[in-house]
Amino acid sequence: MTDTAADVSRWIHAFQAEIAEHRVRLTELDAAIGDADHGTNMDRGMRAVVAKLDDAGVGVDIGSLFKTVGMTLVSSVGGASGPLYGTLFLRMATAAAGLTELNGDGWASAWDAGVAGVQARGKAEIGDKTMVDALVPASAAFAAAVGRGGSSAEAWHAAAVAARAGVKSTVPMVARKGRASYLGERSAGHQDPGATSTYLLIECGAEVLGGVARADRERGTATESVST
Amino acid sequence: MKKLINLPENVVREELEGIALAHADLVRVSLDPYMVIRNDAPVQGKVGLVSGGGSGHEPMHGGFVGLGMLDAACPGEVFTSPTPDQILAATKAVDGGAGVLHIVKNYTGDILNFEMAAELAREEGIEVEAVVVADDVAVKDSLYTAGRRGVGATVLAEKLCGAAAENGLGLKQVADVCRHVDEFGRSMGMALTSCVPPSAGRATFELADDEMEIGIGIHGEPGRERMKLASAHDIVGMLAGALVEDLPFRAGDEVLAFVNGLGGTPLIELYVVYRELDRFLTDKGIIIGRNLVGSYITSLEMAGCSITLLKMDADMTALWDAPVKTAGLRWGA
Q1: Prediction ipTM score
Q2: N or C: which end of chain A has fewer CB within 10 A?
């Protein structure tokens, strides 16, 4: 289970395509409890990321690749998602600095660093109805699978399953962070858009890097509206 | 959607180009990244003042760049925070060696982007302080929300801090002026109609012809209550009543009373509101020392108003009276 910078780049490209595909849906989820720009902003940011990678070339250093992704997101997404997704990748960049291959332990360390960065930046905990609700369980599930000596496919599959459960868990939550928190109780019954895009990020990793078949992960259904 | 624009995606850039052409005597404008910068920046030895936020609230913040107010403004897309690279570039452009103050409205996106920018600027050796303005009493300030939104008091903070910086006060003292405004300023707004972000092309919320939203946010965030339209007298009673109760403002207090239009309300109505506010405060023994009436922090074409009260003392009054020369606010210079 080792991935090169080229593999990581395929994941980033797949995520860009996924965001483009679900742009409208993500914005609709945001319209219900936020300010209706999550899909638009993430789409603009990921297009900029892919353009940057295609222009500058991917290179062999995975840390540099993550850094390019993070810096580009920070400067092109705006809103809260820019700094949060940017920090995720910038911290993963630090964890993977100088590495030309990532094995299971390398990935687990990178996720751990990235997630810690997101939590330090946004100060959100599990249950606040944010991207953390998908990210933290996914990272933990990935690390646990690697710790058990699991294969790449197993680790990514576990992460995707956990992220999916995390997205679903945001539906009944009352938001305590970000713009959705102004709604108070009225935020309950809506799926969090940030957790949804995070789920898509991990799902793409499972598909591209874990080789997990689409049918295993009920592809795309995470963005479907769920009502309670 | 009916708007006086060319293409929705070009609105912010074309607005900035317009500002550059109209106010070349006051500011220079950067289109990459978006920045409005005081013409003579960096002013050596003066604390630099940087603010910013989503566009759609004009004249805030770009219209407040100039002598006695901001050194730079960083506009984001409509209702979207500016990015750290933008804020960093503005911070560097206005650093005259005395440090830079970031005036940040309390929205999660603004805070995260300004925080990252401040970290990057400090890494480059620039002294940066940030003060967050959170004055909207419509939001319950608790551990379970993102906290009160930054609204009308931000305009007053930019004016007062700008004067303090112009007087040669140091970074900490200028930041203290901002903290004073945050501590003693309170605002609440109300909407008669919704607003339409150009890229969305439709209203951010629906409000029936005979309804109003009390406690509206400047991006159309929900307020305290939706109710049947009432008279200016009753509306001022609700808004000012909430402010007076919150701080609280007491008999004998001197205040700056700021009646702000949200973009779609004519001045004739704002003066009707001001009349009601003067009566309301006089009745409570609260003295209006200074006032400001007009549309200074807007929400696109939203009809409605906000009221901000700021407790004043002699120092604050002197800062308020100091010369200011910007596109949006100008006196004594």
Answers
A1: 0.84
A2: C
